[in-house]
Amino acid sequence: MNIFLLEDDILHQQRLELVIREILLEKRWSAKSIVTTDRPDSLLKKVKETVDQNIYFLDIEINGEKKMGLEIASQIRKMDPHGVIAFITTHSEFAPITYAYKVSAYDFIAKDSPIDEIKQHLIDCFENLLDTKATEKKEEMFLFSNQHSNFQVPFSDILYFETTDISHKIRLICKSRLVNFYATLGEIEKLDERFFKAHRSYVVNLENIVQIDRAAGAVYFDMIHSCAISRRRIKPALEKMNAINHLFLNS
């Protein structure tokens, strides 16, 4: 799991992080990362680059902006539909309006509550995340593991893989986030029949292609995402897409 804490009061931030670490130790729960910050932009950048199960503890008022936490939660929900969001705040009066932000907040935790009460709320949030993960119907996942990286993302979220300026470092472009890891495009293409090396710098997920522009030498996935395709690779790409579509239609 990945834990995100957005709090602009440094003392309260440190206090909450300490309680969270105590809970993890007591319950023997492991966290891949704990991101603690008072900067909404920094938190959103980390969320975009983070995969797997996430839990968010957000202050509603950040740097004098009373509803900033709600706005950040709304942006988080677009990237992470299944993460657990809890507000830790003095503004519990905002609880009734959270539906307008479509964030599906799990809990509101009052900052001035006794520490034992806050701790129990935090435990409830963690248990909800873990229980949901254990019982939810799993969609098809792309699992990647080597000596450098270990992660999983929904296959339906994958658009394409691209090379970077760093040797053997690959960037996975998903619908809502990015994942950087070490591998080669040749290795990636062999992992699934829906992966296709369209260009020396790109491996695409054929299942998510909406258009191939022959004249422009481009593959389009939506209004935002596209990548190059070598002209000599267009015909085999279309043939493989047709074969895959036929396979799924008859499965």
Automatic annotation (TrEMBL):
UniProt KW keywords: Activator, Cytoplasm, Phosphoprotein, Two-component regulatory system
Family matches, as InterPro entries: CheY-like_superfamily, LytR-like, LytTR_DNA-bd_dom, Sig_transdc_resp-reg_receiver
**Ranges of residues in domain Response regulatory:** 2-126
Residues modified as 4-aspartylphosphate:
59
Query: Which residues span the membrane?
Result: none
Q: Which domain of life is it from?
A: Bacteria
Would I find Cytoplasm among this entry's keywords?
yes
The HTH LytTR-type domain extends over 142-243
Task: Sum up the protein's function in the record's words.
Answer: Required for high-level post-exponential phase expression of a series of secreted proteins.
Q: PANTHER family, from UniProt?
A: STAGE 0 SPORULATION PROTEIN A HOMOLOG (PTHR37299:SF3), TRANSCRIPTIONAL REGULATOR-RELATED (PTHR37299)
Q: What is this protein called?
A: Response regulator transcription factor
